[in-house]
Amino acid sequence: xxxxxxxxxxxxxxxxxxxxxxxxxxxxxxxxxxxxxxxxxxxxxxxxxxxxxxxxxxxxxxxxxxxxxxxxxxxxxxxxxxxxxxxxxxxxxxxxxxxxxxxxxxxxxxxxxxxxxxxxxxxxxxxxxxxxxxxxxxxxxxxxxxxxxxxxxxxxxxxxxxxxxxxxxxxxxxxxxxxxxxxxxxxxxxxxxxxxxxxxxxxxxxxxxxxxxxxxxxxxxxxxxxxxxxxxxxxxxxxxxxxxxxxxxxxxxxxxxxxxxxxxxxxxxxxxxxxxxxxxxxxxxxxxxxxxxxxxxxxxxxxxxxxxxxxxxxxxxxxxxxxxxxxxxxxxxxxxxxxxxxxxxxxxxxxxxxxxxxxxxxxxxxxxxxxxxxxxxxxxxxxxxxxxxxxxxxxxxxxxxxxxxxxxxxxxxxxxxxxxxxxxxxxxxxxxxxxxxxxxxxxxxxxxxxxxxxxxxxxxxxxxxxxxxxxxxxxxxxxxxxxxxxxxxxxxxxxxxxxxxxxxxxxxxxxxx
Length: 513
Known about the structure:
By secondary structure, the chain is mainly alpha-helical. The chain is built from 21 helices and six strands. Strand 1 and strand 2 (14-19) form a beta hairpin. Helix 6 (105-111) packs antiparallel against helix 15. The longest helix has 35 residues, at 196-230. The radius of gyration is 26 Å and the shape is globular. The termini are far apart.
């Protein structure tokens, strides 16, 4: 006689593997007259998995096989690495390419900022595009195709050695529109692919992978440009880098296409009306932080976009030296994050934000104290530390207090407002640099002026209350590299918990990394 098949049975909140007959006996002992079917919910006595799942929404009851989840995780990581290499070899060299083609220093600074308005604008219509296409995945695929194709005119221009300045700006706008336009949809889609219990460690590993990929792409691009320039083929070097960037984004397209989409459009997402956002700004401390960030962005971008022309045209740095400057700030920021997380745990995120805000004030002025390459590398270490402190604190204080169903909407509007602030600051810098004649004294006035303007929004941080709760690691994605700040990073919303872990009127945040 064969034994009855073993099944899992839940009794008094514990798991046991028993035979069917044994499970029936135990069930009768507790007053249950029928055999107990397979149950997988610990802590609930005699609750059948079948009955439990019938009470769940259809989207939650659909389980993905482990093999599908593992495949999606690998594909998402590979997509992140390919995107990061594209940023390092492609986007990071766009302004340098414009200078190599002969555009003015003031115009080259605008090339790093003005086209971003197209990305901010496309984010606003991304929800409409997702609904129109009926899928977050298809919208992301369309954006990835557009961003990869944006390198084609740059490759052609590098071979020819010329491109009209308006067309160069239009190409850059197409690049930013495609890249930033995919952001909200990608955040929402990926949140449906990764089980919540593994999101924090997974995104921590993925962030380290993408950071390493950005750094390798950046340094490899600088070394390649140096070698091609020594051979008298500088334009050909740019063509090869842009071709590599296009191929990396094409790889991303393949990886994105192979990912699944179990929930095409999440039903719980909420669009926050502008009137409600205005009320938050007027009455909540989140609004004061937002206004500080926008004011600070205007002040920083008055000088920020013009560090690249300053290094290449005024200081005559080599391409290896040029890429080493943002790379040093980027590495310093990454290395400082664990220490800054412990600081936030001990003293509070608001305390960390205050010191970070104070620390970035003199950074631009330090650039005109001396023009030694090694001195500027030391300045970049300080810059990476200060920017890391400010950005980490803002993530802890601002984004984690937003409910999950509102994050995509609020982040989209914040990115658009932030982009407008970036452009406003760069237009001020362009006016100063053009008016003073792109001379060393013009850069002196620009960098000192930016440092002074950074003091103006500081009073908005007074009276910000400390937050309490468990502070979780916040994963980010590097969208761009800048000598003044190391990088432009966006938070990955799926790495945040479903409910805000921080509350106002408290003592300090929990541990972070």
